[in-house]
Design a protein that fits this description.
The chain is built from 14 helices and 24 strands. By secondary structure, it is α/β, with parallel strands linked by helices. The chain folds into 2 domains: about 200 residues, Alpha-beta prism (UDP-n-acetylglucosamine1-carboxyvinyl-transferase, Chain), CATH 3.65.10.10; about 210 residues, Enolpyruvate transferase domain (UDP-n-acetylglucosamine1-carboxyvinyl-transferase, Chain, Alpha-beta prism). Strands 22-23-1-24 form a 4-stranded mixed sheet. A 4-stranded mixed sheet has the order 2-15-17-16. Strand 10, helix 6 and strand 11 form a beta-alpha-beta unit. Helix 8 runs parallel beside helix 10 and helix 10 packs parallel to helix 12. The radius of gyration is 21 Å and the shape is elongated. Bound molecules: ligand EPZ. The site of ligand EPZ has 25 residues, from helix 1, helix 5, helix 6 and helix 12.
Length: about 425
């Protein structure tokens, strides 16, 4: 079955190592298209979204192979410039291939990447930024074409620091003519990782992680070996798990410096956080306090991807918490399932009002998307009795082995 079975109500105790970052490796795989040779990417998570990106690269003519968590991509022969239908619409991140394909091929036809349940996820900011660099983009009903003999670096400012649009401009700019200055760029750690990979390959990028990137186009990029950083959202999910269930855990390799917003919430709720060069420890020995008001923000504010998992933990905290979701228009989808488990949550527009309850009841619930599914696992760990989280495939898009990781932390959890 496509489910996860949890017997909840136990404290979590133990340690687990955090996987490589999904949202760092996806644009890095797209960047391999720019390199006429072989790239070796270590610590690559074996998750559905990565396999999907692998299929897209292979459809374009790349050779892709695996050894454990190391993936090798040879993009010497890219022999197709079209990205059609199901293989594109199934995963939003396919849009990240756009910038690399224009940079490599100069002529791309691509179906519109799908929206998803958390939001319509348009790509207007991507297309407008690439048009400013000289790409001739013609939008048809179900697909669009983008042509540019040679992209031209120029100064521009994004209307919103979109992560994906920033990544597409970076991928288009690294081999463009002249210098690109991108203001109001996204500052997420995944942008820093992508710039790290490209710099290793010979790109000239300054300002990674700041709101302003300066990219001087180079003739060619060369082969590179790169290690993907740990996944801050997976680490953050496991921190919300111990906030919900209680206990004492250590997350090896967890990037504490990228989780400051969550760690300060965890401490305000009464968790005890310890950080060292090996990772993050969190001890929760008594009932936690509510967090009065939290708003999701772009980095380095509280990450939208941890909003649902934290909501599961706040469902059991003493008092009322308010979460305002400011990034996606429909990211409270998990609320009805949490209510089914006994959570007291009311949603008014883009705010969720959570009143902590004494306990949650184990229940059969259904994941509808990646981070909402993770939130249901967090709730199941804290709920009394058995829970079954159906549609496990959503969770496996981003978590390499959530059951193994949580079993390492003492949870009674298994694939069902
Ligand atoms: C990335 O999505 C992440 N995905 C998301 O993680 C993450 O939630 C998001 O950044 C915000 O941090 C990957 O990196 C693969 P955006 P992305 O462009 O690039 C609107 C997960 O759970 N927007 O910063 O799509 C958009 O609709 C996923 O791992 C436009 O309006 O995020 C959204 O409301 C979910 N027009 C907001 O901006 C555009 O052209 C943020 O989008 C682009 C975006």
């Amino acid at each position: 079955m496509d489910s996860i079975h949890i017997y909840g109500g136990n404290f979590l105790r133990g340690e687990t190592k955090i996987q490589g970052s999904k949202n760092a490796v996806l644009p890095i795989l797209a960047a391999c298209l720019l390199i006429k040779g072989t790239c070796v990417i270590r610590n690559c998570p074996r998750i559905a979204d990565v396999y999907h990106m692998q299929n897209l690269l292979q459809e374009l003519g790349c050779l892709v192979s695996w050894a454990g968590n190391t993936v090798t991509v040879n993009a010497l022969h890219v022999n197709d410039n079209r990205m059609w239908g199901e293989s594109v619409t199934r995963m939003r991140s396919s849009v990240m291939l756009l910038g690399a394909m224009i940079g490599r091929l100069g002529d791309v036809t691509m179906a519109y990447p799908g929206g998803c349940v958390i939001g319509s996820r348009p790509i207007d900011i991507h297309l407008s930024a690439l048009r400013k660099m000289g790409a001739e983009i013609v939008e048809e009903e179900r697909f669009f074409t983008a042509k540019a003999r040679k992209l031209q670096g120029m100064e521009q400012e994004l209307p919103f620091p979109s992560v994906g649009a920033t990544e597409n401009v970076i991928l288009a700019a690294v081999t463009a003519k002249g210098t690109t200055v991108l203001r109001n760029a996204a500052r997420e750690p995944e942008i820093v990782a992508l710039c790290g990979f490209l710099t290793e390959a010979g790109a000239d990028i300054r300002g990674a992680g700041s709101g302003e990137l300066v990219i001087r186009g180079v003739e060619e990029l060369h082969e590179v070996k790169y290690t993907v950083p740990a996944d801050r959202i997976v680490a953050g999910t496991y921190i919300t798990a111990v906030l919900a269930a209680g206990g004492s855990i250590f997350l090896e390799n967890a990037p504490a410096g990228q989780l400051e917003a969550l760690l300060s919430v965890a401490e305000a709720m009464g968790g005890c956080v310890s950080v060292n060069e090996e990772g993050i420890g969190v001890d929760v020995i008594h009932k936690l306090k509510a967090f009065p008001y939290l708003k999701t923000e772009v980095y380095d504010g509280f990450p939208t991807d941890l909003q649902s998992p934290l909501m599961a933990a706040l469902s059991l905290a003493q008092g009322q918490s308010i979460i305002e979701e400011s990034i996606f228009e429909n990211r409270f989808r998990v609320v009805p399932d949490l209510q089914q488990m006994g959570a007291d949550i009311e949603v008014v527009k883009n705010k969720a009002y959570i009143s902590g309850v004494e306990m949650l009841q184990g229940m059969e619930v259904e994941a509808e998307e990646l981070r909402g599914g993770a939130a249901l696992v967090v709730a199941g760990l804290a709920a009394q009795g058995n829970s079954v989280v159906k549609n496990r495939h959503f969770i496996e898009r981003g978590y390499e082995n959530i059951c193994k990781d949580l079993r390492n932390l003492g949870a009674d959890i298994s694939l069902a």
